[in-house]
Design brief:
This protein is an all-alpha fold. The protein has 15 helices and no strands. The protein starts with a helix and ends in a 10-residue tail after the last helix.
């Protein structure tokens, strides 16, 4: 009798171990795909000074380019979350998202029109809206007890793309024109899309589950069930506060990525290679910070990690404004990357713990829609400030946005974060 009962238990343990192994491999594959969704925007931030000079654009016009991209993303994020929660097919959605992010950059290589440039970046924003509502809830459900750490690994993938792209593209720009670079740059995205289709194409959250699906994944919903869940979701106080706070934090991050290369190139006189190195320092520091913050948030709670990081970000931005054109400015850039990028996966984990599991895709979609809205406003405001008061004045604006983000975190319900 004991041996009969022990066998199923052993089989169950072995199956669980196999699932964990498969999930771990999928986590690394998804994180690698995430790196490419960040690779392309990081490439474009480095190209912006060159494109702006070639087309004779003002700071406001450069800011409007990024504004159009993030407005498109804000509009598309909620429909993207709905697709995830009602249709499933995670691998297919991630592959489509990655292709949709990379392909418009190929089209940019053929355009000489500012209007067509705006259309291309809007296509990028729509493609990006599919990735996060698909990938983040998938990873969080597979590691429910370590979601802070696992999502930080996913975030590390994004930081790796942000960090490596400026170095690689900066080197290529010394040999090739920017148009040749964007045409060549589409190849990694096509290759990664094919890998996602091959290895994750069967991963879905419907009634017909693949062998890699885990037991805690919710069943696919009907449109009526989804509509009821969505109405309840918009009444969730934690979702509203975290999404609004995320919008202010995204304002800080994306205005920084837009105007820091311009400041380094035009105010400090850096070569394109040195600008790429500085952007690498910003992202590499964030790459190191992500797993540390994720692990600490699993142990100490989300609130303390998020508030500490945001407060430090505001202080560093003020120091950068005072540092001016000194060498200390670059040191502060690296410190800023460490504290600014550390909290992205922590906020995502906090949100998924505060909302229903079967609405994970929509929850992330709403948060990223709010972040895209904040990202769309910030470059345009920053460009207007830079046109009137100089590029250095934008850093005071960035400090103010991160302070607003932190004040909203203070209002979060105490039960929204896991206990130590």
């Amino acid at each position: 009798m004991k041996s009969t009962m022990a066998a199923p238990a052993a089989d169950a343990a072995q199956a669980a171990q196999g699932t964990a192994t498969r999930s771990f491999k999928e986590a690394w594959l998804i994180s690698l795909g995430h790196s490419l969704t960040h690779w392309y925007p990081a490439t474009f931030y480095l190209l912006l000074p060159i494109i702006g000079a070639e087309l004779g654009l003002s700071f406001s016009q450069i800011g409007l380019i990024m504004t159009c991209q993030y407005i498109a993303g804000a509009v598309a994020n909620l429909p993207g979350g709905m697709l995830v929660d009602t249709v499933g097919r995670k691998g297919l959605l991630m592959a489509v998202s990655l292709f949709w992010v990379g392909f418009p950059y190929l089209l940019m290589g053929f355009t000489h029109s500012y209007l067509m440039l705006l259309v291309c970046v809007m296509m990028v924003g729509i493609g990006n809206s599919l990735w996060h509502p698909t990938a983040i809830p998938t990873l969080a459900r597979r590691y429910p007890e370590r979601k802070g750490l696992v999502l930080s690994l996913h975030g590390m993938g994004g930081n790796a793309g942000d960090a490596i792209a400026p170095l690689v593209i900066g080197s290529l720009l010394t040999l090739l024109s920017w148009r040749e670079v964007v045409m060549l740059n589409v190849v990694p995205g096509l290759f990664m899309s094919a890998l996602l289709l091959v290895f994750l194409g069967t991963l879905q959250l419907g009634p017909k589950r693949s062998a890699t699906a885990t037991a805690d994944e919710p069943a696919r919903q009907s449109l009526a069930e989804y509509g009821r869940g969505l109405r309840q979701l918009f009444r969730n106080r934690s979702l509203v506060l975290l999404s609004t706070s995320g919008a202010f934090r995204a304002m800080t991050q994306n205005a920084l990525l837009t105007f820091l290369p311009l400041y380094l190139a035009r105010e400090l006189g850096y070569s394109i290679m040195l600008v790429g190195a500085a952007m690498f320092a910003l992202q590499a520091a964030g790459l190191a910070a992500a797993p540390i913050a994720g692990h600490l948030s699993d142990r100490l709670g989300r609130r303390s990690v998020v508030m500490t990081s945001m407060a430090m970000t505001a202080v560093v931005l003020v120091f950068m404004a005072f540092a001016g054109k000194s060498v200390a400015f670059i040191v502060f850039v690296a410190v800023l990357g460490f504290v600014l990028y550390a909290i992205r996966p922590v906020i995502q984990a906090w949100l998924l713990e505060s909302t229903p599991k079967n609405m994970g895709g929509s929850s992330i979609g709403i948060m990223f829609g709010a972040q895209a809205l904040g990202s769309s406003i910030a470059p345009l405001i920053g460009g207007m400030i830079a046109d009137h008061y100089g590029l250095g004045a934008t850093f005071y604006f960035l400090a103010a946005t991160i302070v607003c983000a932190n004040l909203l975190i203070v209002l979060m319900p105490r039960d929204g974060s896991p206990s130590p």
